[in-house]
Amino acid sequence: VGVAALQLARNAGLRAIALTDTAKHDFALANGAFAAFAHKDRTTFDRVMEITGGRGIGLSLNSVAGSTIAEDLMLLSPMGQLISFGHLGGPPEGSAADLLMSHFTKSVGIRVSDIYTYYRLDPAGLSATLNKITLDLQAGRIVPQVFEVQPLAAAAKAHASLESGSARGKAVISID
What keywords would UniProt list here (predicted)? Predict the structure, then answer.
């Protein structure tokens, strides 16, 4: 999802900042990031504030959760939005009230999103979105990055590479 989000942001003329492992910075930049910083680096906050002119970011797309929700809230600009759509790092740490109240004067917002709710509440909207994504794929505006292709019998190996953080792109399972 991260690579597609970077490519879509680039295509829309937005300046996306990728927070990822240092080893993946070149990969993120090649796929549309305006800048890439190490998500565990203590200087990331200062560097993000520097390139945003002290304002912060308007939108955070977060698939990790865990402690990163609190970290992303710190990076948000006034009226900024955080969309959490995954929990790779476990559930968000801390209470929602504590997280939001510590940023009350910035009027930030948090949204939790999943495709199942979208499907249940707006199947026509989801269909239109998927059709748009299909057109973007066909036109080369979104180019999936494949890290590895494994046979179905090696699905556990492919999953392990994703969990290890070493993958740069998608692991594809072949059923041939």
Answer: NADP, Oxidoreductase
DSSP secondary structure string for all residues of 31-96? TTEEEEEETT-TTHHHHHHHHTTTS-EEEEEES--TTHHHHHHHHEEEEEEEEE---TT-SPSS-H
- The whole-angstrom separation of Cα 134 and Cα 143 is 11
Indicate whether 80 and 165 sit together in one domain.
no
Residue 138: how many CB atoms within 10 A of its CB? Answer: 9
- Residue 74 maps to which CATH number? 3.40.50.720
Residue 153 vs residues 2, 27, 106: alpha-carbon distances, Å: 27, 28, 50
Q: Which of 22, 6, 116 has its CA nearest to residue 59?
A: 6
Total structural domains in the chain?
2
Kindly state whether residues 137 and 157 are assigned to the same domain: no
pLDDT tens by residue, 115-132: 999 999 999 999 999 999
Contact of 47 with 75, CB cutoff 8 Å: no
Question: What is the residue range of 34's domain?
Answer: 2-143
